[in-house]
Amino acid sequence: MATPAPRGRRVPWLHPAAKPVLFVAALLPFAWLLYGAIANQIGPNPQEYIIRATGDWTLRFLCLTLAVTPVRTVLHQPALARFRRMLGLFTYFYVCVHLMSYAWFDQGLEFDAIAKDIAKRPFILVGFAAFLLLTPLAATSVNRAIRALGAARWQALHRLVYVIAGLGILHFFWMRAGKNNFAEVFVYAGILAVLLGWRVWHRFGGPRVVREPAARRA
Amino acid sequence: LPGGKSPVPGAIAIDKPTDYKDATSYNNFYEFGTDKSDPAENATKFQTRPWTVEIEGAVKKPGRYAFEDLLKLAPQEERIYRLRCVEGWSMVIPWVGYSLSALVNKVEPTGNAKFVEFVTLADPKQMPYVKSHVLDWPYTEGLRMDEAMHPLALLAFGMYGEVLPNQNGAPVRLVVPWKYGFKSAKSLVKIRFVEKMPPTAWNKAAANEYGFYSNVNPNVDHPRWSQATERRIGEGGGLFAKRRKTEMFNGYEPQVGQLYAGMDLKKNY
Asked: Which stretches are transmembrane (chain B) (predicted)?
């Protein structure tokens, strides 16, 4: 390997190729959908397949993004934080593809039809609200925006992600409601609840937080 | 399973039939799974012989009818019907069967028979999702007597010139082309003639979303999506092909419209 990791620790996520690898990996679902659509490999209703798959991938990337902080804390791997922005931006990328697929395939890009649909169907409204709320987060992901806002205000803004996660789950829940087919909804809701619950626990009264500075200094 | 030419008006849609592969791999048959691809995968070993259909209720000739006898009860006809799913997609299927009215006449309903209830197989040994709580099994459906007697209401035994594939509701199913697809109950085991409107599976699961009538109607939206348009499965035009406009009674208004004369179809959705 050309560049040894700092302090001699050879963790794969400090390798210079780690970010490009993650970038390519995160694009694979999109590439598969693109290939599948062209090669006619995604079933008899490709439009529906793409809309649902991009929704699924939005939720998956949201979970991954929100998992970064708990995982790096629990595993004592602070360097994992370097992937959080990219994962967050991929969440936004997939939600954009999701929204575009809906607008184009389902609504034929007729904007008055889309506006009516948003007003009429709560599950569309909630999904659209989640997209709108995610937009300023994506827009303020560059370092310059963080500096301009100041860390405290930037962090406060980015706490919107918890609202967005809740709206995303509600969107998925309502989409599956009426068919009583909630197994997957509960999986995502459970993951997000654990990730959020960990933060609450970590911040208020988690024993580790209190003990660490004195007892665990290496 | 060959089918002769049908004399019933409206029985042969001019639309291009859906590819056999799409019609047999994109199915809603929740007993075998809730994904569209599940039925084709999970119904391969489904045993459809021996098979009987029990006729019960307000009829003079109740009893168990063997599948082989049902098959011969009336001449098999080919019917090319549009199929509109409540989810907003559609297909065109060449079914083989005969008018349900032939069976109804054969069993001689009494004056008390106002509705017909259809009960489908719920065998947890063969149908993996019957253990799930997605619906209250067995799946049941119903028609008003005059709907059941309409010549377009079909008792189907085959499609595309062959016997029904398992995932499409083998060995015998209902096809009611002017109603959303879920009204067309699959793998029938019991037909009951009753006086009161029977409960139906989807209505029990979500009464505000799925009514007893469930006629295809572009003017009455599903609470969670519009019913004004539909995606015709396998239609050319690529990913960005426009959806088609959904027609009143799925285009069968000239034939069935009079069944609902004077009815408020917004209320009776």
From this structure: none
